[in-house]
């Protein structure tokens, strides 16, 4: 390979610039140099599982390679070189460009044709048009597209925004994840949509050229086969010389953009030659992108390559083709690009206005009187979902960026850190309990049980004691007043008891009198043994019957009656 001098490069660019200026306004591409990998449906007919199971055992179950990207923060952002190679032999030379990107995470983007939304409208635009609108330093065409409808093909992620999901169609991919990891190879749909470490840039190609520093075309043919193309079989797509573009990375994690001019079947490089050229120049992993008449390289929005499509209406000229996505090397962007509206982006760094801080000027710097005497503001963001509301924590509280809650210094609490800790609590926002003996209060700032309390706290304790005592006595009185009273008083119960006792005693006497009446009567008749007791009823019954009752010689049968008529003497033999 021979490298042209800076003077030759300048002359070449000037000549190409003149060519571009002569053709861009009057002529358009005829799209006649087509190099299509698939004749009908774009993409491999195989599933991701098939590719995983059929690959070499040395790769295990992993169908892609990852590599940490370079994050060189200095200048230049990228370096581009023009090469002239004898890859086709001494009689046929190939020339093109290699661009090395030192900080791909911050300076390399996949862009839709014409800007955001271009793929949604099946729009096509020349690389120079898209690059000029985005301020690209270097740019080249990237993904494939449908030449009839203009539809973007494959997976596309542009600056963190998922533009298109190919639903698992297997073709070689190049992407950059959020943490800067470079990814090349075959991805499942789950890999593409993974949000744990999402892609910020992603584009699909056809044919994996290099894997771990070794040519990987044969394996790729098996994975991405095997429909026929307009230029023949997939093998012919690989073997034919044409204009080519590719992307890969070196061992340092720098991204390498490759472009070679050509015309299908006439000049340029085959994919075998591209893979070996990249390998010879230190590239570790690389994939092939859209080529043929689409192969375009632009510097500062000016065409720097030699297109292969003929122009219309005058076929004597060659015109750049309107393509789909492009790869754009741009100055470092601030995140967010407007520095949250609180600063100015200078060379990829936000210069924040007074009172704001953070990489994106999203954090409010707490300043008096926003900060009180009892806090230190550590807020990293304003409150609110969009960080558009000013933190209002008093006494030095720090503001929760999502909910706007204040975190107070030890000894203070409340929404705005305006109140001292209540007794029994201490620490930041009074979130910790005291652990003193007898439940005594502790120092609200340190939690110490030995430090004397401040005069204000002592006064608070005294007032609290008086208040507690008053409340306790009031509560007791209320409890006594609300106690359930008995239905009868003690005096009533005493009268009832005496009355019942009297009744019982009288009943007892009555029973005794009835139990011993016989002994009393016998005493009265002891001196009148010559008398007999005959009940009056017997006498009356005898008279009624016309007979005189015979006297009973049995003993005296006393009765309750004292009537003398009931007593008669046996001596009288009475009748």
Write out key terms for the chains shown.
single chain, 575 residues, 8-stranded antiparallel beta sheet, 6-stranded antiparallel beta sheet, 12 helices, disordered N terminus
Secondary-structure map:
Elements: E1 2-3, H1 6-23, E2 28-29, H2 48-54, E3 64-68, E4 78-85, E5 94-101, H3 104-107, E6 108-111, E7 125-126, H4 127-134, E8 138-141, E9 156-158, E10 161-164, E11 173-177, E12 181-185, H5 189-193, E13 199-204, E14 208-211, E15 214-215, H6 217-224, H7 234-239, E16 244-250, E17 255-260, H8 271-280, E18 283-288, E19 297-299, E20 302-303, E21 309-312, E22 318-319, E23 322-323, E24 326-329, E25 343-346, E26 349-352, E27 356-357, E28 363-364, E29 398-399, E30 406-407, E31 412-413, E32 419-420, E33 425-426, E34 432-433, H9 455-481, H10 490-515, H11 517-524, E35 532-533, H12 536-545, E36 567-568
Antiparallel strand pairs: 1-4, 2-21, 3-12, 4-5, 5-17, 6-24, 7-23, 8-19, 8-24, 9-10, 9-13, 11-12, 11-13, 14-15, 14-18, 16-17, 16-18, 19-20, 21-22, 25-26, 27-28, 29-30, 31-32, 33-34, 35-36
